Amino acid sequence: MRSYRYGARVRRDLGLCSGAVASLTLANVCPWGAAPVDVLIADGTISDVVAAGTADTSGVTVDGGGLLALPGFINAHAHVDKSWWGQPWVSYGGEPTTQGRIAHERAERDKYGIPSIDGATAVLREFLRHGTTATRTHVDVDLGTGLRGIDTVRAAAAALDGAVEVEIVAFPQDGVVRRPGVLELLDQAAAAGASNIGGIDPASIDRDPVAQLDGLFEIAERRGVGIDIHLHDGGELGAFQMELIIDRTRRAGLHGRVTIAHGFALGELPAHRQAELLDELGEVGISWTTVAPAPSAPLPWRDMREREITLGLGTDGIRDLWSPYGDGDMLGIALRFAQLHRLRTDEDLTRAVRLASTGGGGFVHRPAFDLAPGARADIVLLDAENVPDALVRAPRRRLVMAGGRVVARDGEVLL
């Protein structure tokens, strides 16, 4: 029986954790629970994967001790600019509605120094500690903060020397057309390098879905960026807005560049309506992200998979003025997805973990992300018997590698 104890020979080069190494070998690990292999890494990229014990280990070597190896997790929907992680506890307040949370956040964020470089850095460090090495994060852009949040998140990512790759969505949390000037800010963010612009509930927040979507798609076409829209509205109201987004995507030729986040309505609709929408979503390449909240209706994820609709998982906010919950662990989100959708078989439990890792690659421009040659060397080692065991126990990450560097060990960030 395989031993899952962590290998004692962790590194030969004392500088391995603090800087890049041109080449190294991660020896004796079990990718996705398969037979042991040695992973060869050059310039931060996996160059080859060979049978364990066959690699040249005369150079810098990290002994994986036969542990389970997974690709670095990808958080496809985060809000790293808004957390009070690391600060004194903040009690929940305000009204528990979308409009109520927006108003409460606007009133209270300055008191808690949101956004701040320290706050965003603390969240990204938690991501790393749990094995997340890339994220798509929504960053608030509004008349109160301007583009300051984007600068803050970029500075936080730089503070970690790129260990967590960050893709930014300029996000109009307080609405788009109901706040004159927000469209101009989104346009400025896109011009300044934001990969995506966001939207939020075109019908219930702006109460003018045509105007919001026309404005967003015009910027996306002109600036060559993607669109990532929060859609909380349920039932037929949510379905109506999905149809509008599908139509705009088709007319703008933005196939594969539009994402719907949350999209709770999809799980609430009868099967025939789901099928109609899924056919169109698949046709225009609209992707989906979910945080799998417990009270929501399960998504038709198998039907989405059959239609090749990309589905990613995310943490949403972590200890912010919307919710006191969250710890940045994508295995926890994958477990919540599995529980919400009543997954039981080893195959399905493994698919839930893939949603939190390889399945999220497209959201951060990593279409071929896995433990394979050519991929960035982002690797997580866990003391687990297999992938389903890792999912249900969420054991401490024994080692996290980002871009070929060891950045966390035994739950401690080394940067």
UniProtKB/TrEMBL annotation:
It comes from the Bacteria. Keywords: Hydrolase. GO terms for molecular function: hydrolase activity, acting on carbon-nitrogen (but not peptide) bonds, in cyclic amidines. InterPro entries: Amidohydro_3 (IPR013108), Metal-dep_hydrolase_composite (IPR011059), Metal_Hydrolase (IPR032466), Metallo-hydrolase_Enzymes (IPR052349). The keyword Hydrolase applies. Residues 121-408 form the Amidohydrolase domain. SUPFAM superfamilies: Composite domain of metallo-dependent hydrolases, Metallo-dependent hydrolases. The keyword Coiled coil does not apply. This is Amidohydrolase family protein. It comes from Haloechinothrix aidingensis.
